[in-house]
Protein backbone atom coordinates (compact mmCIF):
# COMPACT_ATOMS: atom_id res chain seq x y z
CA UNK A 1 0.00 0.00 0.00
CA UNK A 2 1.26 3.46 -0.84
CA UNK A 3 0.98 5.89 2.06
CA UNK A 4 -1.09 9.05 1.81
CA UNK A 5 2.08 11.10 1.80
CA UNK A 6 3.56 9.08 -1.05
CA UNK A 7 0.37 9.40 -3.06
CA UNK A 8 0.33 13.15 -2.52
CA UNK A 9 3.88 13.52 -3.78
CA UNK A 10 3.34 11.23 -6.75
CA UNK A 11 0.23 13.21 -7.69
CA UNK A 12 2.38 16.34 -7.72
CA UNK A 13 4.80 14.68 -10.13
CA UNK A 14 1.92 13.52 -12.36
CA UNK A 15 0.66 17.10 -12.48
CA UNK A 16 3.61 18.36 -14.56
CA UNK A 17 3.46 15.66 -17.27
CA UNK A 18 0.68 14.85 -19.76
CA UNK A 19 -0.02 11.29 -18.57
CA UNK A 20 0.38 9.29 -15.36
CA UNK A 21 2.95 6.79 -16.64
CA UNK A 22 5.37 9.59 -17.47
CA UNK A 23 5.80 10.20 -13.75
CA UNK A 24 6.90 6.64 -13.04
CA UNK A 25 10.61 7.34 -12.43
CA UNK A 26 9.66 10.15 -10.10
CA UNK A 27 7.22 7.79 -8.34
CA UNK A 28 9.93 5.15 -7.90
CA UNK A 29 12.24 7.76 -6.40
CA UNK A 30 9.53 9.05 -4.06
CA UNK A 31 8.78 5.59 -2.70
CA UNK A 32 12.44 4.63 -2.51
CA UNK A 33 13.28 7.78 -0.55
CA UNK A 34 10.95 6.54 2.20
CA UNK A 35 11.53 2.79 2.04
CA UNK A 36 15.18 2.66 0.89
CA UNK A 37 14.38 0.27 -1.95
CA UNK A 38 11.62 -0.90 -4.27
CA UNK A 39 10.25 -4.26 -3.22
CA UNK A 40 8.03 -6.33 -5.50
CA UNK A 41 5.03 -5.18 -3.47
CA UNK A 42 5.99 -1.52 -3.79
CA UNK A 43 6.52 -2.01 -7.49
CA UNK A 44 3.05 -3.51 -7.92
CA UNK A 45 1.46 -0.72 -5.87
CA UNK A 46 3.16 2.02 -7.87
CA UNK A 47 2.32 0.31 -11.16
CA UNK A 48 -1.31 -0.02 -10.25
CA UNK A 49 -1.46 3.62 -9.09
CA UNK A 50 0.03 4.76 -12.41
CA UNK A 51 -2.19 2.39 -14.42
CA UNK A 52 0.67 0.45 -15.92
CA UNK A 53 1.69 -3.20 -15.70
CA UNK A 54 4.25 -4.23 -13.06
CA UNK A 55 6.41 -5.70 -15.84
CA UNK A 56 6.43 -2.40 -17.70
CA UNK A 57 7.39 -0.50 -14.56
CA UNK A 58 10.05 -3.07 -13.68
CA UNK A 59 11.64 -2.66 -17.10
CA UNK A 60 12.10 1.00 -16.22
CA UNK A 61 13.08 0.42 -12.59
CA UNK A 62 15.81 -2.06 -13.47
CA UNK A 63 17.27 0.22 -16.14
CA UNK A 64 18.29 2.96 -13.72
CA UNK A 65 21.21 2.18 -11.45
CA UNK A 66 19.99 4.41 -8.65
CA UNK A 67 16.65 2.66 -8.32
CA UNK A 68 17.29 -0.25 -5.99
CA UNK A 69 15.32 -3.44 -6.59
CA UNK A 70 17.16 -5.24 -3.81
CA UNK A 71 17.32 -4.23 -0.13
CA UNK A 72 20.07 -1.77 0.68
CA UNK A 73 21.58 -0.56 3.92
CA UNK A 74 20.77 2.62 5.81
CA UNK A 75 23.55 4.46 3.99
CA UNK A 76 24.69 4.15 0.39
CA UNK A 77 28.36 4.62 -0.42
CA UNK A 78 28.90 5.55 -4.06
CA UNK A 79 32.55 5.18 -5.02
CA UNK A 80 33.47 7.10 -8.16
CA UNK A 81 35.33 4.64 -10.38
CA UNK A 82 35.69 6.80 -13.50
CA UNK A 83 38.82 7.94 -15.21
CA UNK A 84 40.17 10.86 -13.18
CA UNK A 85 39.40 9.15 -9.87
CA UNK A 86 41.18 6.07 -11.24
CA UNK A 87 44.23 8.14 -12.20
CA UNK A 88 44.18 9.73 -8.75
CA UNK A 89 43.99 6.38 -6.98
CA UNK A 90 40.37 5.66 -6.06
CA UNK A 91 41.26 1.96 -5.95
CA UNK A 92 42.92 2.51 -2.58
CA UNK A 93 39.68 3.92 -1.21
CA UNK A 94 37.75 1.00 -2.59
CA UNK A 95 40.22 -1.52 -1.15
CA UNK A 96 40.11 0.15 2.27
CA UNK A 97 36.31 0.24 2.34
CA UNK A 98 36.10 -3.35 1.17
CA UNK A 99 38.36 -4.62 3.93
CA UNK A 100 37.05 -2.34 6.68
CA UNK A 101 33.37 -3.02 5.97
CA UNK A 102 33.86 -6.56 4.73
CA UNK A 103 31.66 -5.98 1.69
CA UNK A 104 32.19 -5.90 -2.04
CA UNK A 105 30.33 -3.75 -4.55
CA UNK A 106 26.62 -4.44 -4.40
CA UNK A 107 26.75 -5.88 -0.88
CA UNK A 108 25.41 -4.63 2.42
CA UNK A 109 27.08 -4.88 5.83
CA UNK A 110 25.62 -7.41 8.27
CA UNK A 111 24.37 -4.62 10.53
CA UNK A 112 22.49 -3.10 7.60
CA UNK A 113 24.51 0.08 7.94
CA UNK A 114 26.22 0.46 4.55
CA UNK A 115 25.73 -0.66 0.97
CA UNK A 116 28.69 0.02 -1.33
CA UNK A 117 28.26 0.66 -5.04
CA UNK A 118 30.51 1.84 -7.85
CA UNK A 119 29.30 4.99 -9.56
CA UNK A 120 30.28 6.67 -12.81
CA UNK A 121 32.01 10.05 -12.67
CA UNK A 122 30.60 12.20 -9.87
CA UNK A 123 31.57 15.38 -11.72
CA UNK A 124 34.11 16.73 -9.29
CA UNK A 125 37.26 15.67 -11.14
CA UNK A 126 39.38 18.59 -9.92
CA UNK A 127 38.99 17.12 -6.42
CA UNK A 128 39.54 13.42 -7.22
CA UNK A 129 39.23 10.87 -5.82
CA UNK A 130 35.68 11.45 -4.69
CA UNK A 131 32.86 9.47 -3.17
CA UNK A 132 29.34 10.10 -1.97
CA UNK A 133 27.61 8.79 1.10
CA UNK A 134 23.87 9.34 0.84
CA UNK A 135 23.60 12.98 -0.32
CA UNK A 136 27.03 14.04 0.93
CA UNK A 137 29.92 14.46 -1.48
CA UNK A 138 33.47 13.90 -0.24
CA UNK A 139 36.34 15.22 -2.35
CA UNK A 140 40.09 14.66 -2.34
CA UNK A 141 39.50 11.67 -0.11
CA UNK A 142 42.42 9.70 1.34
CA UNK A 143 42.11 6.27 2.97
CA UNK A 144 43.22 7.86 6.26
CA UNK A 145 40.10 10.03 6.34
CA UNK A 146 37.67 7.20 5.76
CA UNK A 147 37.29 6.04 9.39
CA UNK A 148 36.27 9.49 10.50
CA UNK A 149 33.92 9.92 7.52
CA UNK A 150 32.22 6.54 8.09
CA UNK A 151 31.72 7.37 11.79
CA UNK A 152 29.31 10.12 10.80
CA UNK A 153 26.83 7.51 9.58
CA UNK A 154 25.13 5.29 12.13
CA UNK B 1 41.72 42.04 -20.77
CA UNK B 2 39.71 38.89 -20.84
CA UNK B 3 36.04 39.03 -19.97
CA UNK B 4 34.30 36.27 -18.07
CA UNK B 5 30.58 36.78 -18.61
CA UNK B 6 29.56 33.35 -17.32
CA UNK B 7 31.48 33.39 -14.07
CA UNK B 8 32.39 36.96 -13.09
CA UNK B 9 29.23 37.39 -11.03
CA UNK B 10 29.83 34.20 -9.06
CA UNK B 11 30.65 34.81 -5.37
CA UNK B 12 34.04 33.68 -4.14
CA UNK B 13 32.43 31.49 -1.48
CA UNK B 14 30.29 29.78 -4.11
CA UNK B 15 26.97 30.68 -2.49
CA UNK B 16 24.49 31.40 -5.27
CA UNK B 17 23.21 34.95 -5.56
CA UNK B 18 19.63 35.63 -4.58
CA UNK B 19 17.44 36.90 -7.39
CA UNK B 20 17.69 40.44 -6.03
CA UNK B 21 21.50 40.29 -5.81
CA UNK B 22 21.63 38.84 -9.30
CA UNK B 23 19.45 41.65 -10.65
CA UNK B 24 21.76 44.24 -9.07
CA UNK B 25 24.59 42.71 -11.10
CA UNK B 26 22.60 43.10 -14.28
CA UNK B 27 20.76 39.79 -14.09
CA UNK B 28 17.48 39.26 -15.96
CA UNK B 29 18.04 42.34 -18.13
CA UNK B 30 18.16 40.10 -21.18
CA UNK B 31 14.64 38.86 -20.41
CA UNK B 32 13.28 42.41 -20.62
CA UNK B 33 15.25 43.06 -23.77
CA UNK B 34 14.31 39.77 -25.46
CA UNK B 35 10.61 40.06 -24.67
CA UNK B 36 10.63 43.43 -26.44
CA UNK B 37 12.11 41.73 -29.52
CA UNK B 38 10.38 39.25 -31.84
CA UNK B 39 11.27 35.58 -31.28
CA UNK B 40 12.74 35.59 -34.80
CA UNK B 41 15.01 38.51 -33.91
CA UNK B 42 16.25 36.72 -30.77
CA UNK B 43 16.96 33.60 -32.83
CA UNK B 44 18.75 35.65 -35.46
CA UNK B 45 20.97 37.25 -32.83
CA UNK B 46 21.89 33.87 -31.37
CA UNK B 47 22.50 32.39 -34.80
CA UNK B 48 24.76 35.23 -35.88
CA UNK B 49 26.68 35.02 -32.58
CA UNK B 50 27.96 31.64 -33.81
CA UNK B 51 27.37 30.10 -30.37
CA UNK B 52 28.08 26.37 -30.64
CA UNK B 53 26.64 23.76 -28.29
CA UNK B 54 28.83 23.28 -25.21
CA UNK B 55 27.58 19.77 -24.43
CA UNK B 56 30.11 18.20 -26.77
CA UNK B 57 28.68 18.13 -30.27
CA UNK B 58 29.38 21.80 -31.03
CA UNK B 59 26.38 22.34 -33.30
CA UNK B 60 25.41 25.96 -33.99
CA UNK B 61 22.75 26.74 -31.39
CA UNK B 62 20.81 29.24 -33.49
CA UNK B 63 20.71 26.81 -36.39
CA UNK B 64 19.49 24.02 -34.08
CA UNK B 65 16.72 26.31 -32.87
CA UNK B 66 15.68 27.28 -36.39
CA UNK B 67 14.25 23.79 -37.03
CA UNK B 68 11.53 24.31 -34.42
CA UNK B 69 8.34 25.35 -36.17
CA UNK B 70 7.50 28.68 -34.50
CA UNK B 71 3.81 28.44 -35.31
CA UNK B 72 3.35 24.88 -34.01
CA UNK B 73 0.59 24.54 -31.44
CA UNK B 74 1.60 24.43 -27.75
CA UNK B 75 2.96 22.66 -25.82
CA UNK B 76 6.51 23.15 -26.97
CA UNK B 77 9.37 22.24 -24.76
CA UNK B 78 12.78 23.59 -23.84
CA UNK B 79 15.07 21.32 -21.84
CA UNK B 80 18.33 22.17 -20.12
CA UNK B 81 20.56 19.13 -20.31
CA UNK B 82 22.12 19.16 -16.84
CA UNK B 83 22.82 15.43 -16.84
CA UNK B 84 26.56 16.04 -16.71
CA UNK B 85 28.04 12.54 -16.59
CA UNK B 86 30.79 12.48 -19.19
CA UNK B 87 33.79 11.18 -17.25
CA UNK B 88 36.25 13.97 -16.53
CA UNK B 89 33.59 16.65 -16.99
CA UNK B 90 32.62 18.94 -14.13
CA UNK B 91 31.94 22.32 -15.71
CA UNK B 92 28.14 22.45 -15.58
CA UNK B 93 28.24 21.64 -11.87
CA UNK B 94 29.85 25.05 -11.32
CA UNK B 95 27.18 26.91 -13.29
CA UNK B 96 24.33 24.96 -11.68
CA UNK B 97 25.48 25.23 -8.09
CA UNK B 98 26.78 28.77 -8.14
CA UNK B 99 24.88 30.63 -10.85
CA UNK B 100 21.39 29.10 -11.06
CA UNK B 101 19.69 32.36 -12.02
CA UNK B 102 21.91 32.75 -15.06
CA UNK B 103 20.66 29.38 -16.35
CA UNK B 104 17.04 30.28 -15.67
CA UNK B 105 17.49 33.64 -17.38
CA UNK B 106 19.00 31.91 -20.41
CA UNK B 107 16.13 29.44 -20.47
CA UNK B 108 13.46 32.16 -20.35
CA UNK B 109 15.06 34.02 -23.26
CA UNK B 110 15.52 30.78 -25.22
CA UNK B 111 11.93 29.71 -24.53
CA UNK B 112 10.73 33.05 -25.85
CA UNK B 113 12.83 32.65 -28.99
CA UNK B 114 11.34 29.19 -29.53
CA UNK B 115 7.88 30.10 -28.27
CA UNK B 116 8.14 27.20 -25.83
CA UNK B 117 5.72 27.22 -22.93
CA UNK B 118 7.20 24.47 -20.76
CA UNK B 119 10.80 24.05 -19.63
CA UNK B 120 12.56 21.30 -17.76
CA UNK B 121 15.96 21.22 -16.12
CA UNK B 122 17.08 17.59 -16.44
CA UNK B 123 19.57 17.26 -13.60
CA UNK B 124 21.62 14.21 -12.71
CA UNK B 125 20.80 12.61 -9.37
CA UNK B 126 24.21 13.15 -7.80
CA UNK B 127 24.09 16.96 -8.02
CA UNK B 128 22.21 17.59 -4.77
CA UNK B 129 23.70 21.02 -4.12
CA UNK B 130 22.69 22.05 -7.63
CA UNK B 131 19.18 20.67 -7.09
CA UNK B 132 18.75 22.90 -4.04
CA UNK B 133 20.14 25.95 -5.84
CA UNK B 134 17.93 25.44 -8.90
CA UNK B 135 14.81 24.75 -6.82
CA UNK B 136 15.31 27.96 -4.83
CA UNK B 137 16.10 29.99 -7.93
CA UNK B 138 13.03 28.73 -9.84
CA UNK B 139 10.81 29.63 -6.86
CA UNK B 140 12.34 33.10 -6.71
CA UNK B 141 11.87 33.58 -10.45
CA UNK B 142 8.17 32.67 -10.17
CA UNK B 143 7.84 35.07 -7.24
CA UNK B 144 9.42 37.90 -9.25
CA UNK B 145 7.18 37.31 -12.25
CA UNK B 146 9.91 35.98 -14.58
CA UNK B 147 8.17 32.61 -14.75
CA UNK B 148 4.52 31.61 -14.82
CA UNK B 149 1.66 33.35 -16.58
CA UNK B 150 1.93 36.70 -18.36
CA UNK B 151 5.65 37.21 -17.72
CA UNK B 152 6.42 40.91 -17.08
CA UNK B 153 3.00 41.77 -18.46
CA UNK B 154 3.89 40.64 -21.99
CA UNK B 155 1.38 37.80 -22.24
CA UNK B 156 4.19 35.23 -22.53
CA UNK B 157 3.73 32.14 -20.34
CA UNK B 158 6.44 29.74 -19.24
CA UNK B 159 6.32 26.98 -16.66
CA UNK B 160 9.65 25.58 -15.46
CA UNK B 161 10.25 22.31 -13.63
CA UNK B 162 13.27 20.58 -12.17
CA UNK B 163 13.58 16.86 -12.97
CA UNK B 164 16.28 14.87 -11.25
CA UNK B 165 17.38 11.62 -12.84
CA UNK B 166 17.90 8.15 -11.42
CA UNK B 167 21.35 7.51 -12.89
CA UNK B 168 22.59 6.28 -16.29
CA UNK B 169 25.00 8.17 -18.56
CA UNK B 170 22.66 7.49 -21.49
CA UNK B 171 20.28 10.16 -20.18
CA UNK B 172 22.70 12.78 -21.46
CA UNK B 173 22.03 11.70 -25.05
CA UNK B 174 19.38 14.07 -26.31
CA UNK B 175 16.75 11.56 -27.44
CA UNK B 176 17.43 9.14 -24.56
CA UNK B 177 16.90 12.08 -22.24
CA UNK B 178 13.49 12.63 -23.80
CA UNK B 179 12.57 8.98 -23.24
CA UNK B 180 13.70 9.25 -19.64
CA UNK B 181 11.60 12.39 -19.08
CA UNK B 182 8.65 10.44 -20.48
CA UNK B 183 9.19 7.81 -17.80
CA UNK B 184 10.80 5.24 -20.08
CA UNK B 185 14.14 3.48 -20.33
CA UNK B 186 16.78 5.92 -21.52
CA UNK B 187 17.38 4.38 -24.94
CA UNK B 188 18.05 6.63 -27.93
CA UNK B 189 15.46 7.30 -30.59
CA UNK B 190 15.81 7.03 -34.33
CA UNK B 191 16.27 10.34 -36.13
CA UNK B 192 14.39 11.66 -38.08
CA UNK B 193 12.05 12.82 -36.78
CA UNK B 194 14.33 15.23 -34.96
CA UNK B 195 13.31 16.47 -31.52
CA UNK B 196 12.78 19.97 -32.89
CA UNK B 197 9.75 18.59 -34.73
CA UNK B 198 8.75 15.60 -32.61
CA UNK B 199 10.49 15.54 -29.24
CA UNK B 200 9.15 15.25 -25.72
CA UNK B 201 5.69 13.64 -25.80
CA UNK B 202 5.83 14.04 -29.58
CA UNK B 203 5.95 17.83 -29.39
CA UNK B 204 8.59 20.24 -30.74
CA UNK B 205 11.49 20.24 -28.30
CA UNK B 206 14.92 21.78 -27.92
CA UNK B 207 17.53 20.25 -25.65
CA UNK B 208 20.50 22.49 -24.90
CA UNK B 209 23.47 22.05 -22.61
CA UNK B 210 23.64 24.15 -19.43
CA UNK B 211 26.72 26.13 -20.48
CA UNK B 212 25.14 26.86 -23.87
CA UNK B 213 22.00 28.25 -22.24
CA UNK B 214 24.10 30.31 -19.84
CA UNK B 215 25.66 32.13 -22.82
CA UNK B 216 22.26 33.28 -24.12
CA UNK B 217 21.61 36.19 -21.70
CA UNK B 218 24.99 37.70 -22.50
CA UNK B 219 24.49 37.39 -26.25
CA UNK B 220 21.15 39.17 -26.01
CA UNK B 221 22.36 41.85 -23.59
CA UNK B 222 25.64 42.68 -25.34
CA UNK B 223 25.02 41.50 -28.89
CA UNK B 224 26.34 38.83 -31.21
CA UNK B 225 29.35 40.84 -32.29
CA UNK B 226 30.53 41.39 -28.71
CA UNK B 227 30.14 37.66 -28.06
CA UNK B 228 32.25 36.76 -31.07
CA UNK B 229 35.00 39.11 -29.96
CA UNK B 230 35.35 37.27 -26.63
CA UNK B 231 37.04 34.49 -28.55
CA UNK B 232 40.60 34.28 -29.80
CA UNK B 233 39.52 32.38 -32.91
CA UNK B 234 36.59 31.88 -35.24
CA UNK B 235 34.48 30.07 -32.64
CA UNK B 236 32.65 32.58 -30.51
CA UNK B 237 32.50 33.30 -26.80
CA UNK B 238 34.32 32.12 -23.76
CA UNK B 239 34.60 28.49 -22.71
CA UNK B 240 34.66 26.96 -19.29
CA UNK B 241 37.73 24.79 -19.58
CA UNK B 242 38.81 22.28 -17.00
CA UNK B 243 41.84 20.15 -16.30
CA UNK B 244 41.98 17.05 -14.11
CA UNK B 245 44.58 14.37 -13.49
CA UNK B 246 48.04 14.63 -12.01
CA UNK B 247 48.52 18.36 -12.49
CA UNK B 248 49.42 20.80 -9.69
CA UNK B 249 46.19 22.81 -9.70
CA UNK B 250 43.32 20.93 -11.29
CA UNK B 251 40.30 23.16 -11.78
CA UNK B 252 37.96 25.11 -14.02
CA UNK B 253 38.59 28.44 -15.72
CA UNK B 254 36.46 30.58 -17.96
CA UNK B 255 38.78 31.67 -20.74
CA UNK B 256 38.50 32.97 -24.27
CA UNK B 257 37.50 30.24 -26.72
CA UNK B 258 40.65 29.13 -28.51
CA UNK B 259 42.99 29.16 -25.52
CA UNK B 260 45.77 26.64 -26.17
CA UNK B 261 46.03 23.27 -24.49
CA UNK B 262 49.50 24.31 -23.31
CA UNK B 263 48.19 27.41 -21.57
CA UNK B 264 45.50 25.34 -19.82
CA UNK B 265 47.90 22.73 -18.56
CA UNK B 266 51.06 24.69 -17.91
CA UNK B 267 49.67 28.02 -16.79
CA UNK B 268 46.23 27.51 -15.31
CA UNK B 269 46.68 23.96 -14.03
CA UNK B 270 50.23 24.77 -12.92
CA UNK B 271 51.93 21.99 -14.89
CA UNK B 272 52.43 18.36 -13.94
CA UNK B 273 53.07 16.96 -10.45
CA UNK B 274 56.76 16.81 -9.58
CA UNK B 275 58.50 13.89 -11.19
CA UNK B 276 55.80 13.34 -13.79
CA UNK B 277 55.65 14.47 -17.37
CA UNK B 278 52.78 15.06 -19.73
CA UNK B 279 52.14 12.18 -22.08
CA UNK B 280 48.76 12.95 -23.54
CA UNK B 281 45.29 14.21 -22.78
CA UNK B 282 41.68 13.71 -23.70
CA UNK B 283 40.67 17.28 -24.57
CA UNK B 284 36.98 17.11 -23.84
CA UNK B 285 35.84 14.17 -21.74
CA UNK B 286 36.10 10.42 -22.01
CA UNK B 287 34.76 10.14 -25.54
CA UNK B 288 37.42 12.21 -27.31
CA UNK B 289 40.66 11.13 -29.02
CA UNK B 290 43.98 11.59 -27.26
CA UNK B 291 46.08 14.62 -28.02
CA UNK B 292 49.82 14.27 -27.35
CA UNK B 293 52.85 16.52 -26.77
CA UNK B 294 52.92 17.64 -30.39
CA UNK B 295 49.44 19.04 -29.91
CA UNK B 296 50.12 21.24 -26.89
CA UNK B 297 49.87 24.39 -28.98
CA UNK B 298 46.53 23.40 -30.47
CA UNK B 299 43.86 26.00 -29.81
CA UNK B 300 40.98 24.55 -27.89
CA UNK B 301 38.15 25.44 -30.25
CA UNK B 302 36.01 23.13 -32.38
CA UNK B 303 37.84 23.24 -35.76
CA UNK B 304 41.38 23.34 -34.31
CA UNK B 305 40.87 20.30 -32.07
CA UNK B 306 39.14 18.53 -34.96
CA UNK B 307 42.09 19.30 -37.23
CA UNK B 308 44.35 17.73 -34.61
CA UNK B 309 42.30 14.55 -34.88
CA UNK B 310 40.10 14.86 -31.83
CA UNK B 311 37.06 16.79 -30.62
CA UNK B 312 36.72 19.74 -28.25
CA UNK B 313 33.86 17.82 -26.62
CA UNK B 314 33.09 19.35 -23.24
CA UNK B 315 36.43 21.20 -23.05
CA UNK B 316 37.38 19.49 -19.81
CA UNK B 317 40.82 17.98 -20.25
CA UNK B 318 41.85 14.68 -18.65
CA UNK B 319 45.63 14.43 -18.43
CA UNK B 320 47.61 11.23 -18.89
CA UNK B 321 51.02 11.30 -17.22
CA UNK B 322 54.03 9.12 -18.00
CA UNK B 323 53.67 6.93 -14.88
CA UNK B 324 50.07 5.97 -15.50
CA UNK B 325 49.41 2.81 -17.52
CA UNK B 326 47.90 3.63 -20.91
CA UNK B 327 46.21 0.23 -21.14
CA UNK B 328 44.78 0.71 -17.64
CA UNK B 329 43.60 4.20 -18.56
CA UNK B 330 41.82 2.99 -21.67
CA UNK B 331 40.42 -0.04 -19.87
CA UNK B 332 38.87 2.20 -17.24
CA UNK B 333 37.19 4.24 -20.00
CA UNK B 334 35.96 1.17 -21.85
CA UNK B 335 34.64 -0.32 -18.61
CA UNK B 336 32.61 2.83 -18.12
CA UNK B 337 31.16 2.73 -21.63
CA UNK B 338 30.45 -1.00 -21.47
CA UNK B 339 28.61 -0.53 -18.20
CA UNK B 340 26.67 2.51 -19.40
CA UNK B 341 25.68 1.07 -22.79
CA UNK B 342 21.90 0.93 -22.82
CA UNK B 343 22.10 -2.49 -24.49
CA UNK B 344 19.75 -1.41 -27.23
CA UNK B 345 21.99 -2.13 -30.24
CA UNK B 346 24.24 -5.11 -30.69
CA UNK B 347 27.66 -3.69 -31.63
CA UNK B 348 27.72 -1.51 -28.54
CA UNK B 349 26.25 -4.05 -26.12
CA UNK B 350 28.48 -6.92 -27.25
CA UNK B 351 31.52 -5.07 -28.57
CA UNK B 352 32.38 -2.96 -25.56
CA UNK B 353 32.55 -5.85 -23.05
CA UNK B 354 34.65 -7.79 -25.55
CA UNK B 355 37.12 -4.91 -25.77
CA UNK B 356 37.22 -4.68 -21.99
CA UNK B 357 38.02 -8.41 -21.83
CA UNK B 358 40.83 -8.06 -24.35
CA UNK B 359 42.37 -5.18 -22.41
CA UNK B 360 42.01 -7.14 -19.20
CA UNK B 361 43.69 -10.11 -20.83
CA UNK B 362 46.58 -7.91 -21.95
CA UNK B 363 47.07 -6.65 -18.41
CA UNK B 364 46.82 -10.13 -16.94
CA UNK B 365 49.54 -11.47 -19.22
CA UNK B 366 47.12 -13.31 -21.48
CA UNK B 367 47.64 -11.02 -24.44
CA UNK B 368 47.83 -12.62 -27.87
CA UNK B 369 49.49 -11.46 -31.06
CA UNK B 370 46.28 -10.71 -32.82
CA UNK B 371 44.78 -8.69 -29.97
CA UNK B 372 45.84 -5.38 -31.45
CA UNK B 373 44.30 -6.07 -34.89
CA UNK B 374 41.25 -7.31 -33.01
CA UNK B 375 41.03 -4.04 -31.06
CA UNK B 376 41.45 -2.12 -34.31
CA UNK B 377 38.68 -4.14 -35.89
CA UNK B 378 36.43 -3.12 -33.01
CA UNK B 379 37.24 0.56 -33.46
CA UNK B 380 35.83 0.19 -36.98
CA UNK B 381 32.86 -2.04 -36.15
CA UNK B 382 31.79 0.21 -33.28
CA UNK B 383 32.59 3.37 -35.19
CA UNK B 384 30.27 6.01 -36.63
CA UNK B 385 27.41 4.61 -38.67
CA UNK B 386 27.42 1.14 -37.16
CA UNK B 387 25.61 1.86 -33.91
CA UNK B 388 22.35 3.47 -32.95
CA UNK B 389 23.82 6.44 -31.11
CA UNK B 390 27.15 8.10 -30.43
CA UNK B 391 28.04 6.16 -27.26
CA UNK B 392 30.11 3.40 -28.85
CA UNK B 393 31.78 5.60 -31.48
CA UNK B 394 32.66 7.95 -28.62
CA UNK B 395 34.13 5.05 -26.68
CA UNK B 396 36.29 4.16 -29.69
CA UNK B 397 37.91 7.59 -29.81
CA UNK B 398 40.29 7.15 -26.86
CA UNK B 399 40.97 3.54 -27.89
CA UNK B 400 41.78 4.22 -31.53
CA UNK B 401 44.00 7.18 -30.65
CA UNK B 402 45.76 5.25 -27.89
CA UNK B 403 46.54 2.51 -30.43
CA UNK B 404 47.88 5.19 -32.74
CA UNK B 405 50.03 7.16 -30.29
CA UNK B 406 50.85 4.62 -27.59
CA UNK B 407 50.92 1.37 -29.58
CA UNK B 408 54.11 0.26 -27.87
CA UNK B 409 52.30 0.28 -24.53
CA UNK B 410 49.93 -2.35 -25.88
CA UNK B 411 52.58 -4.32 -27.72
CA UNK B 412 54.80 -4.70 -24.70
CA UNK B 413 52.16 -6.79 -22.93
CA UNK B 414 51.97 -9.08 -25.92
CA UNK B 415 55.72 -9.34 -26.48
CA UNK B 416 56.19 -10.48 -22.93
CA UNK B 417 53.90 -13.39 -23.70
CA UNK B 418 54.95 -14.00 -27.28
CA UNK B 419 55.24 -17.73 -26.69
CA UNK B 420 51.48 -18.07 -26.76
CA UNK B 421 49.87 -19.31 -29.92
CA UNK B 422 47.71 -16.73 -31.65
CA UNK B 423 44.06 -17.63 -32.03
CA UNK B 424 42.30 -17.21 -35.33
CA UNK B 425 39.30 -14.95 -35.46
Automatic annotation (TrEMBL), chain A:
Residues involved in [2Fe-2S] cluster binding: 80, 85, 121, 125
Pfam families linked: 2Fe-2S_thioredx (PF01257)
Full protein name: NADH-quinone oxidoreductase subunit NuoE
An example Gene Ontology molecular-function term: NADH dehydrogenase activity
Cofactor: [2Fe-2S] cluster
Ranges in coiled-coil conformation: none
UniProt EC number: 1.6.5.11
Enzyme class at the top of the EC tree: oxidoreductase
Entry keyword set: 2Fe-2S, Iron, Iron-sulfur, Metal-binding, Oxidoreductase
InterPro entries for this protein: NuoE-like, NuoE_dom, NuoE_N, Thioredoxin-like_sf
Species of origin: Dawidia soli
Recorded family membership: Belongs to the complex I 24 kDa subunit family.
Oxidoreductase as UniProt keyword: yes
Gene: nuoE
Gene3D superfamilies in alphabetical order: Glutaredoxin, NADH-quinone oxidoreductase subunit E
Key word ATP-binding present: no
Binding note for cofactor: Binds 1 [2Fe-2S] cluster.
From TrEMBL, chain B:
Xref: Gene3D superfamilies: 3.10.20.600, 6.10.250.1450, NADH-ubiquinone oxidoreductase 51kDa subunit (3.40.50.11540), NADH-ubiquinone oxidoreductase 51kDa subunit, iron-sulphur binding domain (1.20.1440.230)
Transmembrane intervals: none
Pfam family, one: SLBB
Cofactor section: FMN; [4Fe-4S] cluster
Residue ranges of domain NADH-ubiquinone oxidoreductase 51kDa subunit iron-sulphur binding in the record: 327-372
One function term, GO molecular function aspect: 4 iron, 4 sulfur cluster binding
Purpose of the protein: NDH-1 shuttles electrons from NADH, via FMN and iron-sulfur (Fe-S) centers, to quinones in the respiratory chain.
Protein name: NADH-quinone oxidoreductase subunit F
